[in-house]
Design a protein that fits this description.
Elements (H helix, E strand, L loop, with lengths): L6 H11 L7 H4 L10 H5 L4 E2 L5 E2 L3 H17 L4 H8 L9 H15 L7 H5 L35 H23 L5 H16 L1
Antiparallel strand pairs: 1-2
Helix pairs in contact: 1-6, 5-6, 8-9
């Protein structure tokens, strides 16, 4: 059986539905999402229904897989967490209220660490709407701009050791110029210039 595409989202739903509580309907029916019995459940391995109309799956993995497939369908349609739960447990369904659905939305959102208006695909990885490309006015990644908006990317490569090596190199060159100037009759000007540069660096 294929691994789940949305394990965190399905896990949060299973927690709210009471799957981890011994004796709960979700647990007894191997149905962590408490999916109703119908065409979708039948197409995803459901073997029957209980007295309340909930699907019964042969094992918990089949139940998780069915719930995961339904989340995947919603995610592909661009649903947010709020959209998903409003569809999963609508407030006008038998036994539900607007408050119970909102509690469900808040529970799943908190479990995933995102806001209710976060798309399912982002929520699964723990990213909120603020993590969408361009959400803060930055440059959205693209083929031409893969996300680097720092501008001066070469600066981090100038480590302290490289700067020190550069300074030592400059001083060695200046020393060689000074020695050359002292050993030639025509090197007075060069010697004075090199000495001035060296003194300037020392002051800096």
């Amino acid at each position: 059986m294929n691994p789940l595409q949305f394990p965190n989202t399905v896990g949060a739903i299973a927690d709210f539905e009471g799957f981890n509580t011994i004796g709960s309907l979700a647990s007894l029916n191997n149905n962590p999402g408490n999916l109703m019995y119908g065409t979708f459940a039948q197409q995803h391995s459901a073997v029957g229904e209980d007295a309340n109309g909930f699907a019964i799956f042969p094992n918990s993995m089949a139940g998780f897989s069915a719930a995961d497939q339904l989340v995947s369908v919603r995610a592909n349609n661009g649903f947010t967490i709020a959209d998903l739960i409003n569809k999963w447990a609508p407030p006008d369904a038998p036994g539900n209220t607007a408050d119970s659905t909102n509690n469900y939305i808040n529970f799943v959102s908190k479990k995933l660490g995102v806001s209710a208006d976060t798309p399912i695909s982002l929520a699964e990885s723990g990213h909120g709407v603020d993590d969408l490309p361009g959400a803060h006015g930055g440059i959205a990644p693209s083929a031409d701009n893969p996300g680097n908006t720092r501008g001066f990317d070469f600066l981090p490569s100038l480590s302290a050791s490289r700067i020190a090596a550069f300074v030592v190199g400059v001083l060695l060159i200046l020393g060689a110029v000074l020695l050359f100037a002292r050993n030639t009759d025509t090197g007075q000007y060069l010697g004075a210039t090199a000495q001035g540069i060296a003194e300037g660096l020392a002051v800096a």
